[in-house]
Amino acid sequence: EIARMPASEIWGKHWKEIILFALAMQAAWVGTTNVGSTYVPAYLRLIGIPESTILFMTTLNMTVLFFAVIAFAFLSDYYGRRKLVIISAALGIPLFLLLIYALYIKNITWIIITEALYLALGWHTETMSMIMIPEYFTTKYRASGGQAYQLTGLIDGSLLAFGFPAMYVAYHGVVNALPGFAIFGGVIWLVIALIAMYFLPETLGRKVE
Questions:
Q1: CA max distance for the chain
Q2: Closest of 40, 24, 138 to residue 81, by C-alpha
């Protein structure tokens, strides 16, 4: 039976799950978007890395992401969505710190390798969350569970538009902001995703009708 007011009912009964899904996806939205699309390219340009190298790195990242998303989707059908996200977030923390170290020592080879691997793990968090949301919020609520996705965008947009620029100003530039970026640009969001996903149920095999 379809809920008469699915949007209101889903917030009344499942507000915790919506918030947890939104926080879990921040590992991808904030962590990987900020790494792949804003901070790292700007950082590399400011330390003198050629634009052709940055373009190559970006292209490689997107290629790795394409195959990683497909691979993780298949793996989640065997091992579970929640388990893969928890493993990915846990592995992503040391990998992100290796990326930060590579940026610090300005080793472009290690920057390219660690960023590609980190992005593959981080973006997988959003992929699994997008699979889990319709599996968790059944057809009774139509597509109202998608509000978790919209909440993610609201949080992410606010941080990218206001939070991170303020951090760069506080650190007097993008290059000097590397310590702050290490904490607020990646690690903290992977930890949040790890905790949020721990409190969410596994949805593999869940009846959706």
A1: 60
A2: 24
SS3 of 168, please?
A: helix
Check residue 172 and give left, alpha or beta (phi > 0: left; psi -120 to 50: alpha): left
**Torsional class of 49: left (φ above 0), alpha (ψ -120 to 50), beta (otherwise):** beta
Q: Are 127 and 196 in contact (CB under 8 A)?
A: no
Measure the CA–CA gap between 129 and 136, rounded to whole angstroms. Answer: 10
Token readout for 68 is: 């990683």
The count of residues in the chain is 209
Name which of 134, 131, 125 is nearest 68 in CA terms: 125
Residue 108 pLDDT level (bands cut at 50, 70, 90) = very high
How far is it, in rounded angstroms, from Cα 33 to Cα 42?
13
d(CA 133, CA 148) in angstroms, rounded, equals: 8
What per-residue confidence (pLDDT) applies to 106?
92
Give the predicted TM-score (pTM) of the model: 0.84
What percent of the chain is predicted at pLDDT more than 90?
13
Token digits for 86?
């928890």
CA atoms of 39 and 185, how far apart (whole Å):
9
Query: Which residue intervals of the chain are DSSP H helices?
Result: 6-26, 33, 40-46, 51-79, 81-105, 108-136, 147-158, 164-170, 178-182, 188-198
Question: Are the C-beta atoms of 55 and 197 separated by less than 8 Å?
Answer: no
Residue of 136, 143, 118 lying closest to 206 (CA atoms):
136
